[in-house]
Structures are given as structure tokens and as C-alpha cells.
Amino acid sequence: MEMRLPDAVQREVELAIRAKASQSLVVDVYATAQEIQREHDVGDAGLDDIAASVARLAAQCGCAVELGHSASRHSG
Fold first, then answer.
1. Which of 45, 43, 48, 36 has the alpha carbon at shortest distance from 72?
2. Which pLDDT tens digit goes with each residue over 9-62?
3. In 10 A of CB 68, how many CB atoms?
């Protein structure tokens, strides 16, 4: 079940996707999620939760999504 991200984290995801969408039509979901997790206080949000939000917003912005890492490699 996907966790609801805190509003502050959701805003960071949105900002990251908008910035990436202006540079490329392809977003690496896990690389972007890792950047957000590393650079911002994401509380209890796990990498897979952030990645799900990244993928959803990238698709909404018309970007192709690339899954650079297997979700099974990441333990929450």
C-alpha cells in the first residue's frame, strides 16, 4: 500500500519533476527519488513511496519514466 507523502515532500517531488521535465522527456524514477530522499527531510517516507509519487507525477507531466533500479533492491 502506498504511503501518503507529507505535503512538504510532495512539493519537493513536484519541483524535481518540473525541473527534470524542462530538461528531458525521460525521468529516472529511482534516481530522482534518491535525490529527493538525500537532499530533503522526508520523514518516514520510504524510497519506494517517493518513487511511486515521482512516477505518477512524471507521467502526468507527459514524461516517460525509467526504472533505473529494481524496487526489490531497496529496503524501506
1. 48
2. 888 889 989 888 888 889 999 999 999 999 888 878 889 999 999 999 999 888
3. 14
- d(CA 21, CA 29) in angstroms, rounded, equals 12
Neighbours of 69 (CB within 10 A): 16
Contacts of range 66-73, beta carbons closer than 8 Å, 24 or more positions apart? 66/26, 66/27, 66/28, 66/29, 67/28, 67/29, 67/30, 68/28, 68/29, 68/30, 68/31, 69/30, 69/31, 71/30
Separation between Cα atoms, residue 54 and residue 57, nearest integer Å? 5
